[in-house]
């Protein structure tokens, strides 16, 4: 945790790239779930076809774990799609990263009780838009 001032912290993952990995896992998980439901498969049925545990499918869908390349290829085959339909494009990653960063900024701003400190953040945000 990086402390900017009392009540305003940022997770260290935003500075070392882990945020991008989390974003990828989240997008891949969302796609797996949507494709599975589109095929009217339960997590259990997909897990059986993948020869893995049902909990593993749930972890993928929640973005807790990321499937290997081999697992993505097998899953794509089971779901009747190309592996490219499971893996997000750079544009989608950027969009999701923006959503995640805005959510984090909002959360940090809610924790700040000092109007002057909020003004500093607002001024910085407004100046970066110009």
TrEMBL record:
Domain of life: Bacteria
Keyword annotations: DNA-binding
Signal sequence region: none
GO cellular component, one term: cytosol
Domain called HTH cro/C1-type: residue spans: 32-86
Molecular function per GO: DNA binding; DNA-binding transcription factor activity
Key word Ubl conjugation present: no
UniProt name for this protein: PbsX-like transcriptional regulator
Organism, scientific name: Pseudomonas savastanoi pv. nerii
